[in-house]
Amino acid sequence: NTTNTGTMSATVGSVFSLSGTWSNLGGTLSVDDTSVLNLGGSFDTANLGTIDVTPGGTVNITGLQANTGINFAGGPGWNLVGGRITGGSLDGNSLAYVNGTLDGVAVTGGLTLSEPNGSVTLVGGTTVAGDVAIGNASILNLDQPHTFAGQSVTLDVPGGFGFTGIYAYGVDGDLTFASDSSLNGNGFIESFENDVFLNGVISPGFSAGNLLLSGNGESILGDTAVLNIELGGVNPGEFDTITANQLTLGGALNVSLINGFMLADGMIFDFLTVNNPTSGTGMFAGLGDLATVGTFDGFDLNIDYGVGDGNDVRLFAVAVAVPEPSSVAVLALGSFAAVVTYRKRRAKRATA
C-alpha cells in the first residue's frame, strides 16, 4: 500500500502511473500541461486528496475507483481509460469516455460520449439522469436492463462522424424508451436476446437520416410512440429511413416535408425496411393499408405495408384534383381510382 502526503508531480511530457492500492489523502498530485497522470491500481474517491491539472494536462482513470457514498466529478483533462468506477454518484459530463465501466453508479447531469471510437459500459443498476448524447463513433454498452425516461437520446450528434449507437446485451431485461423520452439522430440500437420497447418520440437523422434497429431482439413501437419521418426528396439520403431486423409497428406516424420539397404524382418513399420476413407485424394507429397519411399541396401521401419481401413499408404520392362545387363525387371516385391503380401495379410487380 502507498500513501502520499506530500507533492508528487508529472512534468515535462512525462507519464506518471500509480498502481497497487494507494491513497493521496492529505497529499497533492500535480500534472503540467504536457504530462499524463494514470490513476491505476485500486483507490477510493474519498482518498484522492488534491489533484492539480494544468490546462492541457491529462488524468486517466485506469484502475478500480471505489466511489461508494461519494459524489464524484472529474474535470477538464479527466478521462475514463479502461477503469471501473463503482457506487456513489458521478457528474456524467465531467469525464471523457475512452473506454471503461460504470458499476452501480448514479450518473447525474446527463452523459456525453464524444471521444472517437470511445465507449462506456453500464452495469450493476447504473442509472443516468439527464440527456444522453453519443457521437464520433462512440458506443454505449448496456450490460443490464435499462430505461430512458424523461430524456433525449441523440445518436451521432451533429458535427460528429462514424457510426454511433447503443449495444444492449444484458441477459436479465429489456431496453425501454419511455413515453416521455425521445430518440434522435443517425446510428443504431442493437439488442441481443431481449426486446427494445420504443414508447416515446423517434426521429431518425437531422433533417433526413437513418436509424438501424438490429440484433435478435424485437423492436416494438408501443401505443404511445410517435415516429417522425421527414421527406426532402426521393433519392436515398433525402428522406428518413429505418432499417430493422425485427419490428412490431404501433403508435403514431407523423410525416413532414423539409427543405422546400414538394410531392409529385407517383413518387415513392421506401422508408421502413424489415429484414426478418417473419417479422414486421402491426400498423400505425389509424392508418390501414393504403390509407392516406396526409395531403400536401394537392397530393395525397398514402401508406403501403406490403412492399419489398412483403413486410416493408412505403409512402406513395397520388395527385388529387381540385374539385368544382358540383364535382365532389367525381373527385372521390378519382381518388379511389388512383389508389386502386396503385394497388393493381403493386400486385402486378408481386407476381412478375
Give an overview in words.
- The chain has 352 residues and is mostly beta strands.
- Helices cover 7% and strands 46% of the residues.
- The chain has one helix at 328-351, and strands at 2-3, 7-10, 15-18, 22-23, 28-31, 36-39, 42-44, 50-53, 58-61, 64-66, 71-72, 78-86, 89-91, 96-103, 106-108, 111-113, 119-123, 127-128, 132-134, 139-142, 146-148, 152-155, 165-168, 175-177, 182-185, 187-191, 196-198, 201-204, 210-215, 219-221, 226-231, 241-244, 247-248, 252-257, 268-274, 292-296, 299-307, 312-319.
- The strands form 6 sheets. It has a 17-stranded mixed β-sheet that branches. Strands 16-19-22-25-28-31-34 form a 7-stranded parallel β-sheet, with no helix packed on it. It has a 5-stranded parallel β-sheet with strand order 21-24-27-30-33, with no helix packed on it.
- Strand 37 (299-307) and strand 38 form a beta hairpin.
- It is elongated.
- The chain starts with a strand and ends with a helix.
